[in-house]
Amino acid sequence: MQLKTISIALCALLNFSPSQVFSQDSVLNMNNGNFKGTTIYLTAVEREAVLSEMRGFVKSTAGIVKGLSAEDMEMVTASARKSGRGAGAHMPHTLHKKLPVSFKKLGSDTHRRFDELALDAEQLGDAGHSLSQLGALLDNCVSCHSSFRIKVR
């Protein structure tokens, strides 16, 4: 089954420690001379809150992929729901004024896409559709990491 092969490959791809990706000195967070995006300056606590939310996205994605590879749509649904709109409720209120509108829109759309994936997985039970939705959702992740860097000030 091609879907299972793709899911297993994606699962292997995501099998990394979130700290490797989101650490202060990781490649994703380095602001080298080639970076043309926006640097966002936050306190250490604010930065950790944003990175914690992103780690949640990675955990949810891993659960979705594992669910798809096992043809377990209940796992897909439960994993996606963990990063839906309710997941951002713990964010410090100080972030609202500091984060660029484009960053907030991308984050909101990502939460919405997780909710939509969960609902469709539950109602349709179509693994191919869920995988397609996950691909579109991951485009948001790539866009964010390509556009923004977070530094502590």
UniProtKB/TrEMBL annotation:
Annotated keywords: Signal
Gene Ontology biological-process annotations: electron transport chain
InterPro entries with a match to the protein in the record: Cyt_c/b562
Signal sequence residues: 1-23
Gene Ontology MF terms in the entry: electron transfer activity; heme binding; iron ion binding
This protein's name: Cytochrome C
Annotated organism of origin: Candidatus Thiodiazotropha lotti
Taxon lineage: Bacteria, Pseudomonadati, Pseudomonadota, Gammaproteobacteria, Chromatiales
